[in-house]
Specification:
Helix content is 0%, strand content 45%. The chain has 116 residues and is mainly β. The strands form 3 sheets. The protein has a 6-stranded antiparallel β-sheet, with no helix packed on it. Strands 9-10-11 form a 3-stranded antiparallel β-sheet, with no helix packed on it. The chain has a two-stranded antiparallel sheet with strand order 4-5. The chain is elongated.
Length: 116
């Protein structure tokens, strides 16, 4: 999964179509993400020590990662992203529209010289 927490995404399917918001958390094992202000539901809570007032609490629920496109900070378009290796050997995410690098996924690997 190429979307990380803190990325800005645009929702492309559902009631919140067209909404641009920040990713709060990522659940890679199920392929879902939680986005700020998207897919809000009400949780009816009974009074308790933690929640003395009770009532309806609103919270965000996960949406499928395929329903979002990442927004490139360089070109400000919602786009697909890819992975490539730089000449130094680090692995980076890049925008498919403008080829700008989004972030480094892995630093360059150290090469091990064989002992003679």
């Amino acid at each position: 999964m190429l979307i990380r927490a803190g990325d800005t995404v645009e929702v492309i399917v559902g009631n919140s179509r067209g909404t641009r918001a920040k990713v709060v958390s990522v659940q890679p094992e199920v392929g879902k993400i939680i986005v700020e202000g998207v897919n809000r539901v009400y949780r009816h809570m009974k009074r308790s020590q933690k929640n003395p007032q009770g009532g309806r609490l609103s919270k965000e629920m996960p949406i499928n990662v395929s329903n979002c496109l990442i927004v490139c900070p360089a070109c400000a378009k919602s786009t697909r992203i890819g992975i490539r290796f730089t000449p130094e050997g680090s692995k980076v995410r890049f925008c498919k529209h403008c080829s700008a690098e989004l972030s480094v996924l892995r630093p360059p690997r150290k090469t091990v010289k064989p002992k003679v």
